[in-house]
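Write out this protein's structure.
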Amino acid sequence: MPEGDTVYQAARRLHTALAGQVLTRSDLRVPRFATADLTGSSVLEVTPRGKHLLTRIEGGLTLHSHLRMDGSWRIFEPGQRWNGGPSHQIRAILGNATHTAVGYRLPVLELVRTQDESKVVGHLGPDLLGPDWDAEVALRNLLQDPARPIGEALLDQRNLAGVGNVFKSEICFAVRVVPWLAIGDCPAPSAWWPPRSGSWKPTRTARSVRRTSTAGPAGRVRAAAPPSVPPRSATPRAVSGRRTGAPRASRRPLCEPARMSPHA
């Protein structure tokens, strides 16, 4: 499933192609919204929220989409061949004079009032790439259930939004724990994201989380595209996707749960 950084990049591309332009074509190919017509309205912005995409449109409407496993948004110029998949897999088309955005295999596509966005993304925790990122809140969310495996807690979008298997693995390696260790047993969890202060500096773990996601904090914008995020290929990973060779070295011992006796 695409993670927060991938969705962030998709939002940036969509924003660049659509924001500030009047829609000349609109086609939502889902039964509930098949009759909705957005032509003549301007796209205000496209912004990510965790793994969700919010396309805000003039008139107080937001097109909410989620890629899940197979979905994607492709952008085409006039005359360019659409190559995102067969036509029967198209779920959304948003076009203007210069670009057409086509959503393929979108499992979640709905039109909501912008003021009601909280109904679709309000359950999410702080977004690692969003203006609402709050390390203290994320840590507090993670520690609500001390017995929960850390890998499972990191993947729960209610704790913090945007983390998937790649970043889960990188975070666990960075703090030298196995994903199935109870989060309450992790060494000094408060050291991951210390409280903010005038001289606050992120720990190595916090830097690792942000570095694998973005070069800096990303705020929601209207007049320009969201800040650029380095592609994953530009940021070396310690463990995720490595088929050969040992993980990047760490001098700290691995922390894992005590092995239970087979006779216990």
